[in-house]
Design goal:
globular, mainly alpha, about 180 residues, single chain
Length: about 180
């Protein structure tokens, strides 16, 4: 994409980096926020992780080699920051899926109904990689090829994880 190449060039030049970064944030903030939000569940946590993600992007943009799309690279950073955040909270014994879901119900930014909450509960029962793969494929419609770059695993493994996740979610929704 020519527009992306121009933005990348501007991001790597000292005299245009700040303005280009503001453009980058404006362009990708919402998409990255919702990706992060699906992983960490709550708005406040998603905001914190999003901020850390953009800090990391700003500090490391010069290291971006262009082997993947810019958004794929940023998505990988957002995913890793989200996982790091959850692991850190878990080490401090501050998070459980149930607590996160309970806070989701009270969250003024959650606009879901009972069905969406039930789906989120089903997703929360999955192992973390299945959660990621399901969210990325089902909600964000990310291609397995791009997902493979983001999660640094094979497309076949991702397809298997997605199909297993779908089966588990269907079972959960039918039984519950």
């Amino acid at each position: 994409m020519q527009d992306e190449a121009k933005l990348l060039t501007q991001l790597k030049l000292d005299n245009s980096k700040e303005l280009a970064f503001k453009t980058l944030v404006k362009r990708y903030k919402e998409r990255l926020y919702w990706h992060i939000r699906k992983i960490v569940i709550t708005h406040d946590d998603a905001d914190d992780v999003l901020q850390n993600t953009f800090i990391k992007i700003f500090r490391n943009i010069d290291k971006f080699k262009g082997d993947s799309k810019l958004y794929t690279w940023m998505y990988r950073i957002a995913t890793n920051e989200s996982i790091t955040f959850l692991n850190s909270k878990a080490r401090r014994n501050q998070v459980s899926n149930e607590n996160a879901l309970n806070s989701l119900v009270a969250d003024v930014y959650f606009e879901g109904d009972k069905i969406q909450l039930k789906l989120q509960k089903a997703i929360s029962q999955l192992p973390r990689i299945q959660q990621l793969v399901f969210n990325m494929r089902y909600f964000d419609n990310i291609k397995y090829k791009d997902m493979s770059e983001i999660l640094e695993t094979s497309e076949g493994a991702l397809k298997a994880s997605y199909h297993i996740a779908v089966k588990k979610i269907k079972t959960y929704l039918v039984v519950d």
